[in-house]
Amino acid sequence: MPEATAASSTTISRPRKRIVVGMTGATGAILGIKMLATLRRLDIETHLVLSHWAEATIRYETDYTPANVRALADHVHSNRDQAAPISSGSFRADGMIIVPCSMKTLAAVHAGYCDDLIARAADVMLKERRRLVLAVRETPLSEIHLRNMLEVTRAGAIICPAMPAFYTKPDSIDEMVDQMIGRILDLFDVDTGDFQRWNGLEKE
Q1: Structure pTM?
Q2: Is 137 annotated as a binding residue?
Q3: 135: which residues sit within 8 A by CB, 6+ positions away?
Q4: Residue 35 in domain
């Protein structure tokens, strides 16, 4: 009887969530930076890949350096390293977020053109039927952009444009970024607790 009691009190620990984060050269570097900071706060393991132009955009748009951004991730992989663990389907992950996602990267994902690690890791997510979220950044959109978005959606990806909500009446860019990060992570069933959700209009 004592043995049965001891066995029943054993706690089964769940594996730590693991998400791949790709950052490309589209405008909106702060979205990727805040995504990494949020995932670190939530104790979610991150594998980061920065493109060459992501590094340039980080320097231009923010006070961060690429080294500062890499320090926010648990693991960092070179975009040229096609032998990285995340390039294989045998590497278990809960999904991938490309934030911000350039139209060039969108096109590569659509074509299955795995010329760099970001595109290859995204291709792995699609073939393994894992969650792939593309936070695309571009305006206006050409027919080519729209076709690429439609085709990757049909292939299983989720297009989640970085579009701020105004019903929250944000007082700062930080609040707008928090809301966008929260909405993206909702797609992974992760609640950041960092933004105001829509609860309907107040009745007079």
Answers
A1: 0.91
A2: yes
A3: 28, 31, 97, 98, 99, 100, 101, 160, 161, 162, 180, 184
A4: yes
